[in-house]
Amino acid sequence: MPAHCRLIAALLVPLLLCAAPVAAEPLVIAHRGASGYLPENTLAATALAHAQDADYIESDVVMTRDGVAIVFHDLYLDATTDVAARFPGRARADGRHYVVDFDYAEIRRLAVHERVRLEDRQPRYPRRFSSDAGLFRIHSLADQLALIRGLNRTSNRATGVYVEIKAPRWHARHGLDVAAAVVAELHRHGYRDGLDRAFIQSFDASTLRELAAAGATRLPLIQLIGENDWWPDSRTDYDRLRTPDGLREVAGYAAGIGPWYRQILLGKTDAGAPRYSTLVADARAHGLLVHPYTLRADALPDFVGDFDELLAFLLREQRVDGVITDHPDRVRRFLAGG
The CATH number of 3-77+138-335 is which of 3.10.20.580, 3.20.20.190, 3.40.50.720, 3.40.50.300? Predict the structure, then answer.
């Protein structure tokens, strides 16, 4: 299907509280850019995801001490930058260097590298891009949106943005309103309603409910669904969100859900058939889009033979509305029949 047809189908997500559209083809959502190939959330990974024909580029947003919204996943800088070498003595008591303790000018001095495990500094995904040449930097959400707009203009395409509000309660404790910053930046760059190719997502249900209740934006909201034991102090009960009653509540403020894909695909039977939860069907019953995360070709569950098999389970059998993936090119190739 031509790119403009995919985009027309994808952009039929109306305003905030609409029923899920019947898309002609699932969305390819590039997780932190083409992060299977270049360091996550960098401008280089964004540009590559655009070139790989992603429908949307997903970006995480946290804030610096001086109130700049930056594209970065973690609350601390240690797993993906050289902060310890660049700013010795700036760690907190737990040994970590937190984004909210640095001004944007300081953040810009850091070199970004592939994610490492904090316990041994070894790569989390060993076969991914590796370089100690200091090629990559952290950038602002404003720069991210400007790059995507520029690439769309020069390539005559309409790749959308998919922005995650990270840890709003943590930011509030430090005097920062990350949700307001994200909404303001998106609106400033022309993303204002469901026709403007932008989603806002968060794991924090209270934040999304508050945005909806206040009429703060007409952009479609996506409720991310994790596991309760991931963040024991979370205000959001993810077990409840996955129930029919919980999904009914989500449909009151969001256009869709972003579940962990293992909440849909539960494994295989002794005979080798896939086992599924009812989550996709339950979400559809309440008119919700379903965009599971995070599909990685180099981090498959042990019961899946290869990446295409995983894609077949979710895209062909469960018919989800889109997938969030580190490898957008491979999803696009699968959808094209290759």
Answer: 3.20.20.190
